[in-house]
Write a structure and sequence with these properties.
This protein has 365 residues and is of the alpha/beta class. 32% of the residues lie in helices and 23% in strands. A hairpin with a 5-residue loop joins strand 12 and strand 13. Helix 5 packs parallel to helix 6. The longest helix has 21 residues. It is globular, with a radius of gyration of 21 Å.
């Protein structure tokens, strides 16, 4: 009987974590005194060393599937981030399209002196396999450094995305891997940065942010996808609205400033949105379709020919919401980030002393 009860308890925890990840709360979580990872924290002075970093940057992600045939010329950006090279359970995935097309990035990015190589660790099963195997970790590190040097990158960005309960063993494995990666990158005169979910403190995630930030030259926050494609409609990452959405951009920034020196923080804005098919209650009927800002602008903003089409900027989130009915008489809701909503968020960041930003992604706007 005891074993059954314990088993049911862990099943319940796992179910709650899965639901939380895919279904953002429509109301804020209750106030507690808990220090749980996903709980917003009051503003405190970070107990970490001040960062010694380069001057503020404005960077642009260039995904391998959007590589141009001509030179990239974006005068508003001083750094390009190649996204990127994938990983498998043996090391870097040499058959990954991001690996095989890196030469095309080289040819299109010759005008930029500051270029960063992203290591894409975005498959949960593969990430668990790598984190359990020190030999594979070392191979990922050594291959990444060799590739960065061969292709004249000035640094490496580790995009380690893991959906898991915050078990101590997993957190320890990540800490060890990041610490070693940072050390070896610096030994080869390469900058080492880390990408983290911006909703790390809102959802149950296994990241020891204080420790990880000590072993990263920059901590890049993915401030998008707060409302998931498999969940119900909502803003990409609302500027305000914690009482409506459970969390918001301003509270997220405060949470990270508690843990990471402001000089290290870089906020990534996603210039895209999701198109959800919804029922009469405005609940999602199926997984949403991802649309770039450029696609949304062409389909809805410049001229919307769909039935019952309305386009409205939401004052609370600062983002834009579109509602329309398609030719099959199905209702849709589209939420997306705009250059105007990004500017409002950047103004808030400047008030907090955060000056570096990044944009996802080239060809999206």
């Amino acid at each position: 009987m005891t074993k059954i009860i314990v088993g049911l308890f862990f099943i319940g925890i796992l179910g709650f974590a899965t639901y939380t990840y895919f279904h953002p709360a429509s109301k804020p979580p209750p106030d507690t005194n808990s220090n749980a990872t996903n709980s917003p924290t009051p503003l405190i002075t970070p107990q970490v060393e001040a960062a010694t970093t380069k001057k503020p940057t404005t960077s642009l992600f260039v995904p391998y599937w959007g590589l141009p045939s001509q030179q990239i010329s974006e005068p508003d950006f001083d750094e390009l981030i190649y996204f990127g090279v994938g990983v498998n359970s043996q090391g870097l995935d040499t058959k990954d399209p991001g690996y095989t097309q890196i030469g095309k990035f080289d040819a299109s990015a010759t005008h930029y002196n500051q270029r960063i190589l992203t290591i894409r660790m975005i498959n949960n099963k593969t990430n668990f396999d790598v984190l359990k195997n020190k030999a594979v970790q070392q191979k990922v590190i050594s291959q990444s450094i060799a590739m960065a040097q061969e292709h004249n990158f000035q640094g490496i960005l580790l995009d380690l995305e893991l959906v898991s309960l915050p078990f101590a063993s997993i957190t320890s494995q990540m800490n060890s891997f990041v610490e070693e990666f940072h050390k070896e990158a610096h030994n080869h005169n390469l900058e080492f940065s880390l990408a983290l979910y911006a909703d790390t403190f809102y959802r149950i995630r296994p990241y020891d942010v204080v420790f990880l930030s000590k072993y990263a030259d920059r901590v890049m926050l993915m401030a998008y996808d707060f409302h998931k494609s498999k969940g119900n409609p909502g803003p990409n990452f609302p500027l305000d609205g914690k009482d409506t959405y459970g969390y918001d951009f301003k509270l997220m920034v405060t949470d990270f400033l508690n843990m990471v020196p402001k000089e290290k923080l870089v906020v990534i804005f996603g210039l895209f949105g999701y198109d959800w098919t919804v029922n009469d209650s405005q609940k999602t009927e199926e997984q949403a379709q991802s649309l770039s800002y450029l696609e949304i602008k062409q389909q809805f903003v410049d001229s919307c020919k769909a039935r019952h089409c309305t386009v409205k900027q939401d004052a609370l989130s600062s983002e834009t919401k579109v509602e329309y009915t398609d030719s099959d008489l199905q209702n849709h809701i589209v939420w997306f980030e705009t250059l105007d909503s990004i500017e409002k968020k950047k103004q808030f960041l400047k008030q907090k002393g955060i000056e570096s930003t990044s944009y996802w992604a080239y060809s999206f706007f």
